[in-house]
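FAQ: What does the model actually see?

It sees only this:
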Amino acid sequence: MPQYALLMYHPDGGPPADQMADLHQRWQRFAQDLKDAGALVFNQGLRGTDAATTVRVRDDETQLTDGPFAETKEQLAGMFVVEAADLDGALSWAARMPSATYGAVEVRPVWG
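And it is asked to produce this:
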């Protein structure tokens, strides 16, 4: 079955603090729904961009930059990899993600 990455983008600073208790319950329910449907391959959150290092190699020289290269108001916060029959199925899961209500979810087919 095809796999899709559901990439979660959150506003800089994370989700709204006043919604954290409700969001925690919604995330637990979403993850359980994926497991129950047999669609979850794996999921993982990411630390904030303040913990990131960007690596580039130019003219055989390694360049390291603290944080992301681009200024942005949203940051990649984590991902779920799911199995779905087709893109429409993956988009349906993405629309159910709690972060779709306060951030964005990018859906990409997984290679291999």
